[in-house]
């Protein structure tokens, strides 16, 4: 078995389209229609944060418990 660990910086985790896991919840980083950024809680179908810049999003959401998820989203 081969396991690869990467030292992922917050700037790499919090990019538009990335799926993030924190404990039992899944979050999606999306671009707002007004040019800002949103964090969407996919576990509860809620927008939990709206930010003007990606830096502001990182500042308020960065946590060592956040893990970048390698996932495929299928919309039916």
Domain module tally: 1
Helical fraction: 10-25%
The major β-sheet equals: 5 strands, antiparallel
| Content-based structural category | alpha+beta
Description:
The chain starts with 9 loop residues before the first helix and ends in a 7-residue tail after the last strand. Strands 4-3-2-1-5 form a 5-stranded antiparallel beta sheet. It is built from 2 helices and 5 strands, in the order αββββαβ. The chain has one domain (10-69). It has helices at 10-13, 54-61, and strands at residues 19-22, 25-31, 37-41, 46-51, 67-69. The radius of gyration is 13 Å and the shape is globular. By secondary structure, the protein is α+β, with helices and mostly antiparallel strands. The longest helix is centred in the C-terminal third of the chain and has 8 residues, at 54-61.
What are the main properties of this structure?
76 residues; alpha+beta; five-stranded antiparallel beta sheet; 2 helices; 5 strands; 16% helix
What's a concise summary of this model?
The protein has 76 residues and is of the alpha+beta class.
Write the layout of secondary structure elements.
Layout: H1 10-13, E1 19-22, E2 25-31, E3 37-41, E4 46-51, H2 54-61, E5 67-69
Antiparallel strand pairs: 1-2, 1-5, 2-3, 3-4
